[in-house]
Amino acid sequence: MSHDAMNTTDPSPESPKRKFDVFEGLDPAVRDRTKKMLMYFIVFAVVMLFAGFTSAYIVSNVGQFWVHIEAPRALWISNALILASSLPMWLSLRAMKKGQTMTSFVHLAITFVLGIGFTVMQLQGWGELQEKGMGWTVDELASGAKAYRWNSIDQLIEGPAQWGTDFTIEQDGTPLNYRPETKQLFASDDVLMARDITLDVVRTSNSSAGYLFILILIHLFHLALGLAYLLVNGIRILKGQIHPEDTIRLHTGGVYWHFLGLLWVYLFAFLFLIH
Asked: Which of 52, 73, 123, 185 could staple 198 via S-S, CB 3.0–4.6 A?
C-alpha cells in the first residue's frame, strides 16, 4: 500500500463541540415567547411565595400586639436606589434595540452599580436595627455551640432602642402607653398608667417574628440572583451574544429586575409602614 493511500485513512481533526441550546431549531418568535413565559412564571411563583409568608405572619399576629419599627435612614436610601435602577435597566434594552451596543452596556453597568449600592444600604440598615436589639441574639451554650434566637419584646424594651424614636408597640393600630423610667407598658386607654400589662404584651407578641427574618433572607437571595443575571448579561453584550436582533435576555432580565424593585417596596411598606 502506498504512502498516499495510507494518508487517506488519517483521522481528520475533531470539530469543536457546540454549546447545547434547548431552543435550537425553534422559530425565533416562539423562542422569545417561551423565554418570556418562563420569566413570568418565575415572577408569579415568587409572588405566591411572599404572599404565603406575609399572610402567615398576619394570621399568626391576630389578637397579638404589633411592634412598629421606624425604618433607619439607610433603608430609605435603599428604596431610592432600587427604584432609580429601573430607569437605566429600561434604557439599556432601548439602546440595544437601536443598535447602540456600548450605550446599552453602560446603562446595564449603571443598573449593576445601583444594585450594589442598594445591597450595601440594606446591610447597613439591617445592621443598625440589629445593634438596637431588633434582630437576633447569639448566645453561647455551655458546650461552646451558638444558639440563635429572635429578640423578644422584653429584650427590645431593655435594649438600646428608644421608644417613640426607634419603635412603638401597638394594639389595633394605637400605640400603648410607655413609662421609660420603669420600662413598663400600659394599655392605650390607660391614661393614668395604673395597670402594668408588660407581661401580657411579652406573652402575646413577637411569636411570629421569625417570618420577618425569612422574608428578608428570601428577598436578599433573589437580589443576589438579579445581580448575577445583570453581570452575565453584561458579559453577553461584550461577547456579542446579545445584539439588536436578539434582545430577549435583556428583556427578561429587565422584567426580573423591575419586579425585584416592586417586591422590595412592598416588603418595606409591609414591615415599616403598614401596621
From this structure: 185
Residue 171 cell numbers, joined? 394594639
pLDDT digits (tens, 9 = 90+) for 216-256: 788 888 899 999 999 999 999 999 998 999 889 999 999 99
| Alpha-carbon distances of 89 from 31, 56, 108, 265, rounded to whole Å | 22, 33, 6, 17
Q: Identity (one letter) of the amino acid at 192?
A: L
Rounded distance, CA 97 to CA 246, Å?
9
Spell out the CATH class of 71-132+206-275.
mainly alpha
pLDDT of 13 > 70? The answer is no
Measured CA to CA, the distance from residue 111 to residue 95 in angstroms comes to: 14
Strand extents, DSSP E, the chain: 66-69, 136-140, 146-150, 167-171, 174-175, 177-179, 184-186
Coil, strand or helix: which one is 275? coil
Check residue 153 and give its pLDDT.
72
What does the domain layout of the chain look like in residue ranges?
A: 71-132+206-275
Helices (H) and strands (E) counted in the chain, each on its own, are 9, 7
Nearest to 261 by CA among 124, 144, 114, 74: 114
